[in-house]
Amino acid sequence: MKGHPDVAKCLCHYNALAEWNQIKTNEQLIKSNIEKYLEVAKNLNEIKIETQPSTQNQIIPTSTRKRTISSDDEKEICDPLFDPNIVIAVTPTFSKRAGKPGYVDVDESKPWVIRGIEKAKARIDAHQAKIDAKRLAKQNR
């Protein structure tokens, strides 16, 4: 409930402080201001009450785009070629593990740091060999 609905928030605060300093010792002014605030509050409540009955929630019909249930849904789908007794085994044609090279020359006696360095060096050497092969291919063209 706002006593001054048309005034900005910060101005309302400073006006309220000034008003309080004026009225904290004057009883007649207190009574008159309370009556003013009550009138403003009653007016605001009456306006709110009048607008509430006019706004009614209307029931919106649902869309007819949804699939309707029919008597065909109760029956099972019959496929003349489907026979539940026949099971065809399928052999896999591709395996990810078969394509990857295994780790060879892993010496477990060496510390893990040295093994990591050796793997990194092998990767760098392979990458450098690939770059050299591309250079040779460009030169031979």
Strand content: under 5%
Based on CA atoms alone, the radius of gyration comes out at: 43 Å
Number of strands: 0
Main structural class? mainly alpha
> What separation lies between the terminal Cα atoms?
87 Å
Number of helices: 4
Tell me roughly what share of residues is in helical segments: 40-55%
Global mean pLDDT: 76
Main sheet summary: none
Assign an overall shape: flat
Q: What letter string, H or E per element, gives the SSE order?
A: HHHH
As residue ranges, the low-confidence spans are none
Structure description:
This protein is mainly α. Among the domains are: 9-54; 107-141. The chain has 4 helices and no strands. It has helices at residues 9-23, 27-54, 96-99, 112-140. It is flat, with a radius of gyration of 43 Å. The termini are far apart.
Write the layout of secondary structure elements.
Elements: H1 9-23, H2 27-54, H3 96-99, H4 112-140
In short:
Helix content is 54%, strand content 0%. By secondary structure, the chain is mostly helical. Among the domains are: 9-54; 107-141.
